[in-house]
From TrEMBL:
Source species taxonomy: Bacteria, Pseudomonadati, Bacteroidota, Cytophagia, Cytophagales
Domain HTH luxR-type span(s) in chain numbering: 32-59
Name of the molecule in the record: HTH luxR-type domain-containing protein
Organism: Dyadobacter luteus
GO terms, biological process: regulation of DNA-templated transcription
An example molecular function term from Gene Ontology annotations: DNA binding
Signal sequence region: none
Length: 78
C-alpha cells in the first residue's frame, strides 16, 4: 500500500534508534505475527517480545501495539 502524502511516507525521525532486534520485531508485527508467534521464531519467551514492543513504542513515542503496526504499514516497512 502506497500513500501519496509525503508526510506519511517519511520514516519517524527516531526509527534509527531501534536496535536490530527491535527492527526485526517491528517487521514481524507488520506481517501480523503475535508476540507468541514472534517468540517462537526468535526462540524467546513471549513476555520478552512484549518488553521489546514496549521499548519500541517508547523510542518512537507511540502508545499501543496498534499504533506501531499502523506506523509500520504507513512507511511500507514490510
Amino acid at each position: 500500500m502506497h500513500h501519496t502524502s509525503n508526510h506519511l511516507s517519511l520514516p519517524h525521525p527516531k526509527i534509527y534508534l531501534l536496535s536490530d532486534t527491535e527492527w526485526i520485531i517491528l517487521v514481524y508485527l507488520t506481517n501480523g505475527l503475535t508476540s507468541k508467534d514472534i517468540a517462537v521464531h526468535m526462540n524467546v519467551m513471549p513476555k520478552s517480545i512484549d518488553n521489546y514492543k514496549n521499548r519500541i513504542g517508547k523510542k518512537l513515542g507511540m502508545q499501543g501495539y496498534g499504533a506501531l503496526y499502523k506506523y509500520a504499514v504507513i512507511i511500507d516497512l514490510f
